[in-house]
Amino acid sequence: MSKKFNIDTVANAEATPGQALPWAELGLKQNEYDRVVEILGRRPTGAELAMYSVMWSEHCSYKSSKVHLRQFGDKVTDAMKEHLLVGIGENAGVVDIGDGWAVTFKVESHNHPSFVEPYQGAATGVGGIVRDIISMGARPVAVMDPLRFGAIDHPDTARLVHGIVAGIGGYGNSLGLPNIGGEVVFDSSYQGNPLVNALAVGVLRHEDIRLANASGVGNRVVLFGARTGGDGIGGASVLASESFDDAKPSKRPAVQVGDPFAEKVLIECCLELFKASVVEGIQDLGAAGISCATSELASNGDGGMHVELTKVLLRDPTLTPGEILMSESQERMMAVVTPANAAAFEAIMDKWNVEYSWLGEVTDTGRLVIEWDGETIVDVDPRTVAHDGPVYERPYHRPAWLDGVQADSFQGSSPDLRAAVLELMSSPNMCSKDWVTNQFDRYVQGNTALAMPDDAGVIRVDEATGLGVALSTDANGRYSYLNPYEGARLALAEAYRNVATSGAKPLAVTDCLNFGSPEDPEVMWQFAESVRGLADACQELGVPVTGGNVSLYNQTGGVAIHPTPVVGVLGVFDDVARRTPSGWREDGQAIYLLGTTRDELDGSEWANLRGHLGGTPPVVDLAAEKTLAAVLVNSSRDGMIDAAHDLSEGGLAAALSEAALRFGVGARIGIDELCERDGIDPFTALFSESQGRAIVSVPRSEEVRFNDMCTARNYPTLRIGVVDTENSALDVQGHFTLPLDELKEAHEGTLPRHFA
Amino acid sequence: MSVETPLIGDFQPFPSASAEGSLAGVRVGVVTFPGTLDDRDAMRAVRLAGGTAISLWHGDHDLRGVDAVIIPGGFSYGDYLRAGAISRFAPLMEQITAAATGGPGALPVLGICNGFQVLTEAHLLPGSMIKNNSLHFLCRDQRLRVENADTLWTSDYAAGEEIVVPLKNQDGQFVADERTLDELEGEGRVVFRYVRENPNGSRRDIAGISNAAGNVVGLMPHPEHAVEPGFGPDSSARGEVDLRGGTDGLGIFTSVLKKLVG
Amino acid sequence: MPRIVVDVMPKPEILDPQGKAIAGALPRLGLTGFAGVRQGKRFELEVAGEVTPELLEQARSAASTLLSNPVIEDVTRVEVIQEDAE
Amino acid sequence: MPRIVVDVMPKPEILDPQGKAIAGALPRLGLTGFAGVRQGKRFELEVAGEVTPELLEQARSAASTLLSNPVIEDVTRVEVIQEDAE
Ligand SMILES: Nc1ncnc2c1ncn2[C@@H]1O[C@H](COP(=O)(O)OP(=O)(O)O)[C@@H](O)[C@H]1O
Ligand SMILES: [Mg+2]
Predict the structure, then answer these.
(1) Which residues in chain C are contacts of B120 at CB distance < 8 A?
(2) pLDDT at B5 over 90
(3) How many angstroms separate the Cα of A440 from the Cα of each of A260, A443, B113?
(4) Disulfide check for A315: which of A147, A217, A229, A381 has CB 3.0–4.6 Å away?
(5) What GO terms fall under cellular component here (chains C, D) (predicted)?
(6) Residues of A with CB below 8 A from D20's CB?
(7) Structurally, how many domains does chain C consist of?
(8) At residue B246, does pLDDT exceed 50?
(9) Domains of chain A
(10) pLDDT of residue D83
């Protein structure tokens, strides 16, 4: 039984061309609305208007970013495609990791919802990205969470930190997905606009890849999972008042509430569907809900679909057709099933107690036709909804203020080094993130070979061989603020280096581009430069972008966040038993510093602690990064190193401190030779953030072999110390000694002090 | 209907950790409820200990002839209402309850984390779990003392031996009235105790208990995540620093296998 | 639609960590007048037709078997509410 | 000791996963008479002395700031209870 609405049918639209529609309230521009009318050759119905308006939104259509994002495809060489099974454009990219195994991974943002309702916003962010992974036919195996908050001591920060961290954990832990890494950064530029990015990775056999398309005329279309409610359509209630007949619509929820239990059941249920081969194509429902799922499935398949919308199971019976099409209720999936498999499909739904409803079927008409109670309310070419959205070449220009900022290089007087290291390691960005990461399950599934606080998360894929993957996500908004082109390249370089530091060979990239308003030409320039930088850098390193997400309008008032291109790199291991931890363990091992240290303090954590942001970020040399990665991966594979930690934010001071604290094992370090070789002072040696560097610990028996390898590759190497298990301290000889207890207390006290 | 928890690749056969082939004849059932998470991990642990793991589905009415049952961790039914409250009413729980309370030779049952919560809700074990004192989910490597090494699930340990296994939960604070607590202590039914630090406020540092007959044991920390070198905690109570090398939890699984063979 | 309300509170002798946390937070908001806080649960069971005695019996049974755990909680109320107001 | 009771329920239009799970479980216990379940919270604020109007105001303020999340929940009651019974 369907509610009686005074619905706007196609026939009615044809009969009443002059009827005014609330397109502006739904976010369409005049030219966009005119284009819809032109495509249809008539005014849209209310339901069609709903579909076009959500699908043509910035979020779904990438209308401002599309012209730039093309570079990710255009700059991919054939060699880079070698491991790509599914590239950009699908729900998530799929990468071949050998032995018939593949992985799929992607990072997405849930920034705005998390500011409004931190717990649910973050939770549903995890839920959404995990459904993307499921829809490729994969079993999700891990999540990560790059986060950005405002200043640590701002009165609103605790609310966001508590809610967001609990939400990430509440959802991910309940799904049984180990959290294997992420970021926590505090910076006042994110005050009114925290960033909540969530990454998920899944595993599948090559033959199990599922693409979201509706093909096979006569195949049936089914919606399953949670019921459809009024979630996420707050602004669209203008439609409700248009078409509602007898009663006032109930209130539409301002936020979405996640049900991780329902999603966990959905995961198992989908995997059983895949295993039993009873679905042809499958599509997750995220933003734009049924509008998105039907139009994308149809346009990626045989081109036609017929749907009876009254069949949708509702949580709120007052929803109008347009609202049903736009609803963003969580934990739903849509599938295409052959008639012969329908009974098997239903049996699996019943086993897992999942609700479903058969909505319609695949046709060859080239039209997406949606009926309500037998009357046609949508009749469109699905491609025009899903793929032919507006594309903008937004104007952009380099900000005039940038010259001034770049000229303002950091001028610090040399501080007391011991105090400076303690200050750095207890600072909000460099302190231990245990208070956060202890709220996440890193053990579940039993395949986590490396996780926080090591450089990358490592997951075993194949229990028989040890085949596995490593992942790291990185971004530095300050670097990107100083130079967005270089900033994006630096983000990739760091993630790539982190993966290689763990011992994995980097293979592929995902990214989440968090920026301010594209309508601001200076922000648009930051965006364009970042994409150009990332695409160039991917080409130079030979790792393709397989998918990602763009989040624009991250600003409060007129002030945008620092440009924050979060980059995730995936690497592969033949055997995860070879992974390298970041901390020292064995007494007497030699500690080497790889790479060259320059005077590069602009944009650094140390400058940040002094309230300075100016100059130019560290130089990126991707050829050097490639060599460094090869050194790290080979020495891990050949058993030449026992520990490795890359140098990034906080430089050598941070890397040494973290390597010592990892297992509570100290070292004796000498930096004088380094200072002499690189022509720098001890302060620069410790706090500069020059790229292309890592520290490794080498067993005595391997030193010759290790040195030979570095020499052969012509990579700068310097023995800077030895691991010392006897004396529990970080001893930088001639400069200071820091007992590990004192360092640990400084490092671990900060987050509990603010949030516990 | 009984179906294995679906996998993308099926379990890979891997060499049994045990040389005693006879252990492989012991069939240990691992129950999956909707929302169970650590079922595959518990099955892996059984296999690494040398036994044969059998998947059991909550909706079945049949224990498939298993010699012992593990109710694994997770968030069955989302932990909504109370952890374990809804799962307790599953058809399979009736079979388990009947078999576990059947006098001498009763079915050995181990509840881990959510499984422990299910066992208390089902009244197979006394007490209950409330939210951690911190109100947060807490994941960390936890040191425990094996207080009672005479149960079916702990006989491979020495009484007083310490072990390190992962702990991960939100509702892990064990509570019971004073009389029950005294009774548990008096009868030697406190099987595991938190040492060094009580992570959640549990009464008398209790981490795990048994029923009076000793065949049903529940504990909050996760021994099944400390059974395989390379994938366990970073430390072991044996003291060495090793990357994810801790396997102190394996004894729980070898204990029951050996008892059932012996 | 009539509803049956079931209130469940933690037993007085059980320390209630959530209540304790709230009691600790109140003074920080300048709300200093309370001696303690306890947090319990309130369930609303919706009834499609009329509330029969048999249905009320069902609700009582639900309250004591499923909705509460007698080891840590007490059912403090099972009551019919006719309208949207109490 | 007098107490002030605060009831907080999920907004009707908001998904209530807990209520949904309970509603799904009831029929399995043979309790089939309910059309739906919603789970909310019930707080009892203990008052040391007398409940002054000012204290009730404090309770209302606690209810709307700390005890409920106005984005997803409604405060459905703030009321004084004198004795142990309601
Ligand atoms: N929000 C988070 N979730 C999970 N892990 C995190 C989070 N924030 C930081 N971490 C982990 O803490 C460790 C230190 O973080 P970071 O200093 O940013 O690493 P790196 O400099 O190597 O990129 C890493 O292992 C990282 O994955
Ligand atoms: Mg690193």
Answers:
(1) 71
(2) no
(3) 15, 9, 16
(4) A229
(5) cytoplasm
(6) 259
(7) 1
(8) yes
(9) 581-756 (3.90.650.10)
(10) 63
Pocket of ligand 1 from Cβ distances under 6 Å: A 145, 147, 179, 181-184, 433, 436-437, 452-455, 474, 498, 648-649
Q: How much is the pLDDT for D76?
A: 96
Nearest to A134 by CA among A177, A180, A173, A166: A177
Distance CA A337, CA A344 (A): 10
pLDDT at D58 over 60: yes
CA nearest neighbour of A234 among B193, D84, D13, B33: D13
CATH number of the domain where residue D60 is located: 3.30.1280.10
Q: Which residue has the tokens 């009318």?
A: A37
Distance between Cα A199 and ligand 1 center (Å): 13
Q: Which two tokens stand for residue A48?
A: 């069609």
SS3 assignment, position A38: helix
Min Cα separation D78/chain B (Å): 23
Q: Contact A53/A85 with Cβ under 8 angstroms?
A: no
What single-letter DSSP state applies at residue A542? T
Question: Helices in A456-591 by DSSP H: which ranges?
Answer: 477-482, 484-501, 521-541
Catalytic residues of A: 59, 110
ω before A453 within 30° of 0 (cis)? yes
Note the pLDDT of residue A241: 40
Taking the model in full, what pTM does it have? 0.94
| ipTM of model | 0.93
Mean pLDDT by 10 residues, chain A (756 residues): 66 90 90 95 93 91 93 91 83 90 96 94 96 93 98 96 97 97 97 96 91 84 94 57 42 84 95 92 89 90 90 91 91 95 96 96 93 93 92 96 97 91 98 98 97 97 96 98 98 98 97 96 98 97 95 91 98 96 96 98 97 97 98 96 97 98 97 97 97 98 96 97 95 97 98 95
- Show which residues of B are catalytic: 113, 222, 224
pLDDT, tens only, B197-239: 999 999 999 999 999 999 999 999 999 999 999 999 998 888 7
Give, in order, the Cα–Cα distances in Å from A525 to each of A391, A563, A617, C30, D31.
Answer: 17, 10, 18, 47, 62
Measure C47 CA to nearest chain B CA, in Å: 20
- Cα A565 to ligand 1 centre (Å): 16
Residues of B in contact with D28 (CB under 8 A): 89
A353 touches chain D (CB under 8 A): yes
Residues 6+ apart with CB under 8 A from A679: none
Joined tokens for residue A659: 């390597």
Are the C-beta atoms of residues A603 and A482 closer than 8 Å to each other?
yes
3-state secondary structure chain B: CCCCCCCCCCCCCCCCCCCCHHHHHCEEEEEECCCECCHHHHHHHHHHCCCEEEEEECCCCCCCCCCEEEECCECHHHHCCCCCCCHHHCHHHHHHHHHHCCCCCCCCEEEECHHHHHHHHCCCCCCEEECCCCCCCEEEEEEEEECCCCCCCCCCCCCCCEEEEEEEECCCEEECCHHHHHHHHHCCCEEEEECCCCCCCCHHHEEEEECCCCCEEEECCCHHHCCCCCCCCCECCCCCECCCCCCCCHHHHHHHHHHHHC
Tens digit of each residue's pLDDT (9 = 90 or more) over B127-174: 999 999 999 999 999 999 999 999 999 999 999 999 999 999 999 999
Instruction: Give the span between the Cα atoms of A294 and A308, in whole angstroms.
Output: 12
pLDDT tens digits, D20-32: 999 999 998 999 9
Superfamily for the B22-261 domain: Class I glutamine amidotransferase (GATase) domain (3.40.50.880)
The stretches of A638-739 forming alpha helices (DSSP H) are 651-663, 672-678, 682-687, 703-712
10 Å CB burial of residue A100 (0-12, 13-18, 19+) is middle
pLDDT, residue B9, reads 36
Q: How do D3-10 and D34-47 pair as beta strands?
A: antiparallel
